[in-house]
Design brief:
4 domains, two-stranded antiparallel ribbon, Recoverin, domain 1, 16 strands, 32 helices, mainly alpha
Length: 740
Amino acid sequence: MEQPKCGYTDMWAVKMSKVFNALDRQKRGYITEKLLTDVTEQFYKDYPKVQKEGIKKSQHITWVELYNNGRNVPEDYQLTEEVFIKNLWVSVNQPDFKEKAAKTFRDSFALMDLKKDGYMSKDEYMKINSWRAGEEQALAAFTLMDTDSDGYVSFDELMDAKVFYYTDLHNKSHPFNLMNGPLDVTHTSYTDMWAVKMRKVFNALDRQKRGYITVKLLTDIAEQFYKDYPKVQKEGIKKSQRITWVELYNNGRNVPEDYQLTEEMFIKNLWVSVNQPDFKEKAAKTFRDSFALMDLKKDGYMSKDEYMKINSWRAGEEQALAAFTLMDTDSDGYVSFDELMDAKVFYYTDLQNKSHPFNLMNGPLDVTHTSYTDMWAVKMRKVFNALDRQKRGYITVKLLTDIAEQFYKDYPKVQKEGIKKSQRITWVELYNNGRNVPEDYQLTEEMFIKNLWVSVNQPDFKEKAAETFRDNFLLMDLKKDGYMSKDEYMKMNSWRAGEEQALAAFTLMDTDSDGYVSFDELIDAKVFYYTDLCNKSHPFNLMNGPLDVTHTSYTDMWAVKMRKVFNALDRQKRGYITVKLLTDVVEQCYKDYPKVQKEGIKKTLHITWVELYNNGRNVPEDYQLTEEMFIKNLWVSVNQPDFKEKAAETFRDNFPLMDLKKDGYMSKDEYMKMNSWRAGEEQALAAFTLMDTDSDGYVSFDELIDAKLFYYTDLYNKSHPFNLMNGPLDTPVTFTVQCK
């Protein structure tokens, strides 16, 4: 099988999306085990109890092993399509996938083989499977699996078809890949320019700048802006809006009225929609309905006044007029349906042409870099960490306001209010892309970085930044002499990263070394910091500390190693760990240990949890750390310049807890007593043997630290003994994860 560097192919994702959609009958955008069980009750209600229970059992095994990577998640756990596809990718790349699949499909086969003759007839297959995708598609699937055309499907035929379907990445025309319908795969991915266009559509709809839209919010807008329209026309607008919401924005899913569609999901969903083979036909139907509503005179043409009346609320009169003019290609002062259709379809489907008039209907396309660099992300992470003083993993405007109250409590009221005002402007414009999100909205580091990237690439970023930083400068210029002294800067900023770093920042900004920072010096430094992508040694980029950027991304092999660490900790297979769950494991597994030693284990566990797994954040006790975030956080941790020193300190604390005899060495029995619960006795013994490099039957601290550091930092050596401490490295073709 060809192994693409970037992971699974678009074709494979389309196949898995078809599997998901067959299960997601209610078009909710997620499935739960309970929903699948309810479907079983509904469709197999007339089956004998034994067979129905067998179907449920087989379904449960598939749910756990195939869809959730062995995790026994709660009954009401909502598995989205995105996670479903990721989980399937992990599952099909396990070394024992074919064996597990054979067992699962054998159970399924036995349930479909109603006559118990070792073969599955067309009627038997149809009886169990036609509800998924309809009789026509079920019949097509049966015919494709029946490779010898004898009218029956044997277990081997079923197995060959299913395994090929789940594992093949490229063969669009192979019969087995067509079992769930034709594979409509066009572009491999959208461009930055296309994403910018779709973001403009989203922003026009997200008038309240919440960061999401709901069908209810859109309906409320219709009520507000079309309140004076005749009832019939207003209802038509709402109907057209709902069709667009379901078909275009949500891929045919009739999601709940209060479902919050974020910008990110909006763009992803649109990408799926515009790549459907019937997109143009569906779009023509939707736009025809829209056109009829805008053609108020019912003369088959849309005048400028008619268009403006319905559309000026979206992006303002000026932009609406520009859009009308661009669509009116024959310049006759009217837009026909064909002109509307050509413009809309081009807008939604074109990926490259930045200067084409149709692509400018919602304003100029300001596309700069295709993506930010690791170095830029490191800089923004430093900004975030300075704001996230409590190490929660998120910030809110309320938390930032509370900080202002705390650190500027002795400032005059006018100045303090000015600081809060400046802070709120920065929060809205720079950190949230102009969205006035709720006071308790939790902005995570990941979203903070993404939002900043959008902000700094706006064409008016420098102007907006100058305005914001000018307000800031005036607040720091306490003497109002047009310059900021070292004392003035330190008074306002030392709380963020400490006096030493604040002093270093001031010195770097003071480019003429006169002991003062002018506004021009401040703005030059700030704009460079937020926009430069590559210059690791430039003084302005060092204002928040050195830039420790090593590898651009971790490898698949490294991710597999960290996943093994996570799985050993996630004993309940929940898909997440908490410090409380880990503490409970300590209580359970070390219940017979002396209290002092048990408390020591808990202490070292807590340090590892905070420093290694959460990048120094003292998150709440019930904070759920997912596998994905666990791996991302570990990647950040191991790339810190002081990782080896911190790791040595942590492992040094750990070592005396395993060295029960306090002789400076760890015997096999001592190691096994502490570690066999993680991955079983066999694996624990293997790990001990691999660490015991001099084969003297003991592991010294140096041997332990060498092994651990190599395990956490090495990216490539699949055969090195230290990398095998948690079992063989069966590296699938996974995602190329960029740590941005």
